[in-house]
Design brief:
heterodimer; A: 152 residues; alpha+beta; DNA polymerase, domain 1; 5 strands; B: alpha+beta; Aldehyde Oxidoreductase, domain 3; Aldehyde Oxidoreductase, domain 4; seven-stranded mixed beta sheet; five-stranded mixed beta sheet; 28 strands; 23% strand
Chain lengths: 152, 780
């Protein structure tokens, strides 16, 4: 089947199998490997991207469902010399170690903060419940999200 | 300049920019021209004979390139996966290690054990073809129960009673005698729950074979690529070492689970050679649950004897350790040398005896998981000490303090084979108690009771031995390899520095901390130092990262290499400055003639060494030095962790209200990174105490095989953590550092469960303290 989708501002027309997942389209068809796959039950959130402005787990969205959508991945929110405030805060607060959950965590956090300006510690913890990190114990992630919220 | 980003500075990490922008390169992100994909044939049974494998239908599927089995692997002459540590039994005989073919040939012994590999042009086709393979098994009764296993049928023909070893440490007779004389004996039975490591990046491998040169390349998720190359060449004999390159690129966490030499990575490389095209495999999370080595899984009886003045006089420990279906790479050492040796804890208990039965079961192999033996030991010691305090009606902190090894007693030889080098246990206890406002706990309990909550506080005063290891000691204890580390410093002709380390970072931040060490020692800018690791083609040799050894051993190797750079640079500088070698001082990146204004920078000396026009005649050109550092002892981090919980009496839900960790890691290279290591370790420990449990049913089926069933700690399961430190520098390594990677996971389980026990007022609770267990305990 054919999917028309805009990813990080660039329009694509792609030929994919019917059962292709959005995360496969991003990683395999477009080479956007910043979006990771950490589980097979939609629990870990490593694959989180934005679709039409809301965070989704790209392992649970068919490419077909992204027909006509605007998708933004970790590669699309900032660049090495112009970081998004959330990226900056993650680095500043040491909110990442191995980096594997980080792209999904950042994408979830951006959506969380944009829907909840002024969010507090408990709100961040509840809001990131769908993203698992095994390295940081979440302490510095929560700090980073609250810091970024003040700069977004 | 350099000092601001040198040793002790909370420098932001070099590696972060690529990770926060999505440009990290993990194994699954890599692709090769002509690449194929692998799926594994895995046993659906915990114990069965393989009678027949029919793959014609699978092979006929369009896109399938090959279906290969353990039979073909054996025909190709590949060897078994070895266990790297020999354990001597009580009677002096060697442990009994069952053969472990990478792909099962005649029998399968745990659910998920691979016995074949399907190679196809897409992942979907490989998975579909695997479903089309028809395998006829003869099911056998699985041996799952750790207690019954030693009275059950043999899993492996040559292993009587399914017992890999019956091991002991310490003086049994003296301990028995002291226990007899004790005024009070506290005895408890303890379960240390099976855990599944769950690094967020699943294991993956990309095998490449070049027929013309016979070069094998394996990209894989490894904590120690050089060890992987050594084992794959020396034992599995997949390729000679000089024709095998193992690269561990960005690796998404390990926690021990990526130390081991697994079947899948081996099979992928072999398959790539068989089919003549690159082959890639990435584990699904479901596969990771089944086939990654698990952790812990002990049953223990412990007795602590105290005299009439509450001095500890004897500790007797008897443990049954589940090793799973095969001995994994380090599986034998974890419940023995990394466990029994820690039973003194922080205390001057004079008589200790520990015995451990290592038992085979039809479950996934069990091996090192963050802390590896030391969390289990700490849990034994700190649970029994806590229980003794409650039985005797004394304050648990006071009882610990009374029995601690005092600061002036170091070096302190324990009754269980270690010599603690240094420490000040009371200092960290005092600091933690102050941070916890321990004296006011009664008021907080009363306040919580008013809200219908039971509040409890729990301590764990842990010690661990890490920084593996003095090679001599490790080899004497049965290790099959030395446990030094290598480091190389190459000062490039233009003065910047490339550092090569045999240690490996999969989240620890070596690219930052190791650069800090070298920048500090050589007086160069932090940004002028690049750290290379994880590639046997670029780094000479290494033993990798586990057992909190990176900075203590790998960092020390770099200090030695830096000393050699300075020594050679001084000779070059002396020649160029027309001075005597003895008159050259090196500081802040400058070689200076003492009491003069004549000096040369390291960069100028480096340039001269590569463009040796004005150069000492007896000196080789170039400024690159390497060192192998073999420590003389372990390092012994220690500290006090204090957990405070509130239990909801209606639901049994335990809320972790606060967690305080005061750790002594000696000197710290980067406090930001060290605190992060503590945070992560603590939450893994909290996960063990409250949430995580790998459970098999009586048929050997894993009941907790996904994130829907295995409860990982999430952001809303834990509070902000309080992390502080005391400092007694390690006396025997050049940086004065101790390992920090595992301490959190070592102290936290005991602290949390002691707090739950305090809240409940009953000792009858096991890990994980789930709402159901707690609720039942509350019903009494």
């Amino acid at each position: 089947m054919q999917v028309e989708v805009t990813v990080n501002g660039q329009a694509h027309v792609l030929e994919v199998a019917d059962n292709t997942l959005l995360v496969e389209l991003l990683r395999e068809n477009l080479g956007l490997t910043g979006t990771h796959v950490g589980c097979d039950t939609s629990q870990c959130g490593a694959c989180t991207v934005h679709m039409d402005g809301r965070s989704v787990k790209a392992c649970t969205v068919l490419a077909a469902q992204a027909q006509g959508a605007e998708v933004v991945t970790i590669e699309g929110i900032g660049s090495a010399d112009a970081l998004h405030p959330m990226q900056e805060a993650f680095r500043d607060c040491h909110a990442l170690q191995c980096g594997f959950c980080t792209p999904g965590m950042i994408m979830s956090a951006i959506d969380l903060v944009s829907r909840n300006p002024g969010i507090d510690n408990a709100g961040v913890r509840a809001g990131l419940e769908g993203n698992i990190c095994r390295c940081t114990g979440y302490h510095n992630i929560v700090r980073a999200v609250i810091q970024a919220a003040q700069n977004m | 300049m350099a000092k601001e980003q040198g040793i002790g500075a909370a420098v932001k990490r070099k590696e972060d920019l690529r990770f926060i922008t999505g440009s990290g390169r993990y194994t699954d992100d890599l692709n090769q021209p002509g690449q194929l994909y692998a799926a594994f044939l895995r046993s659906p049974y915990a114990r069965a004979d393989i009678l027949d494998i029919r793959s014609e239908e699978a092979e006929a599927l369009e896109g399938v390139v090959a279906v290969l089995t353990g039979v073909q692997m054996a025909e190709d002459g590949l060897g078994d996966l070895p266990c790297g540590w020999q354990v001597k039994q009580k009677d002096g005989s060697d442990m009994v290690s069952a053969p472990h073919p990478p792909l099962a040939v005649q029998a399968v012994n745990y659910v998920g054990e691979p016995y074949g590999i399907v190679v196809a042009d897409s992942i979907a086709t490989a998975l579909q073809a695997a479903e089309l393979v028809t395998t006829e098994f003869r099911e056998l009764d699985p041996i799952v129960d750790l207690v019954l296993a030693t009275d059950s049928e043999r899993i492996h023909a040559d292993v009587a009673r399914n017992l890999a070893y019956d091991w002991e440490l310490g003086d049994a007779e003296a301990t028995d005698a002291a226990m007899q004389r004790a005024a009070h004996v506290t005895r408890i039975e303890i379960t240390n729950n099976r855990l599944i490591p769950n690094a967020m990046e699943p294991r993956a491998a990309l095998g490449i074979y070049e027929a013309a040169t016979e070069e094998h390349t394996l990209y894989t998720t490894s904590q120690n690529p050089h060890l992987e190359r050594l084992v794959l060449s020396a034992f599995v004999q997949i390729a000679p070492e000089h024709k095998l390159r193992v690269i561990a690129p960005d690796v998404g966490g390990g926690f021990g689970s990526k130390i081991f030499i697994y079947a899948e990575e081996t099979a992928v490389l072999w398959a790539a050679r068989r089919v003549g095209r690159p082959v890639k495999w990435t584990a699904s999370r479901s596969e990771a649950f089944l086939a990654d080595a698990h952790g812990r899984d002990h049953l223990t009886t412990v007795e602590l004897g105290l005299d009439a003045q509450n001095n500890f006089v004897a500790l007797r420990v008897s443990t049954r350790a589940n090793l799973g279906a095969y001995l994994s790479t380090f599986g034998s050492s974890v419940p023995t040398y990394l466990y029994g040796t820690l039973m003194a804890g922080q205390y001057r208990t004079p008589n200790i005896h520990v015995e451990v039965s290592g038992v085979y079961t039809n479950t996934s192999p069990v091996d090192a998981y963050r802390g590896a033996g030391r969390p289990e030991a700490t849990y034994v010691v700190e649970r029994v000490v806590e229980t003794a305090a409650r039985e005797l009606g004394v304050d648990p902190a006071d009882l610990r303090r009374k029995n601690m090894i005092p600061p002036d007693a170091f070096p302190y030889e324990t009754p269980v084979a270690l010599v603690y080098d240094t420490g000040n246990y009371e200092a960290s206890l005092d600091k933690a108690l102050a941070l916890a406002d321990y004296v006011a706990i009664a008021e907080r309990k009363a306040e919580a009771a008013g809200r219908g909550k039971r509040r409890g506080i729990g301590l764990a005063c842990y010690i661990e031995a890490c920084g593996l290891a003095p090679s001599k000691l490790a080899i004497a204890l049965g290790a099959g390899v030395g446990l030094y580390e290598s480091g190389e410093i190459r000062v490039n002709p233009t003065g910047n520095v490339t550092v090569f380390t045999g240690s490996h970072s999969h989240g620890q931040g070596h690219e930052t901390t190791f650069a800090q060490v070298v920048a500090d020692r050589l007086g160069v800018e932090f940004d002028a130092v690049e750290v290379v690791h994880g590639d046997t083609g670029r780094v000479e040799f290494g033993l990798g990262t586990y057992g909190s050894r990176s900075i203590a051993v790998g960092g020390s190797a770099l200090c030695r290499a830096a000393d050699k750079i300075i020594a050679k640079g001084s000779r070059i500088a002396a020649h160029m400055l027309e001075a005597e070698l003895e008159d050259i001082d090196f500081a802040d990146g400058q070689f200076q003639v003492r009491d003069s204004n004549r000096s040369l920078s390291l960069g100028e000396v480096a340039f001269a060494s590569y463009v040796p026009a004005d150069y000492p005649e007896d000196l080789e050109p170039g400024l690159s030095e390497k060192a192998f550092y073999d420590p003389e002892n372990f390092t012994y981090p220690a500290g006090t962790h204090i957990a405070e919980v509130e239990v909801d009496v209606d639901t049994g839900v335990v809320e972790l209200v606060s967690f305080i960790a005061v750790d002594d890691f000696g000197h710290v290279i980067n406090p930001m990174i060290v605190e992060g290591q503590v945070h992560g370790g603590v939450v893994q420990g909290v996960g063990q105490a409250l949430l995580e449990h790998g459970i098999y049913d009586d048929q050997g089926q894993l009941q907790t095989g996904s994130y829907m069933d295995y409860c990982m700690p999430r952001a809303d399961d834990v509070p902000d953590l309080v992390v502080d430190a005391t400092v007694t520098p390690c006396p025997h390594n050049p940086l004065g550092v101790k390992g920090c990677g595992e301490a959190g996971a070592i102290g936290a389980p005991a602290a949390v469960i002691n707090a739950v026990v305090d809240a409940l007022g009953t000792n009858d609770i096991s890990m994980p303290a789930t709402p159901e267990k707690v609720w039942r305990a509350l019903q009494g």
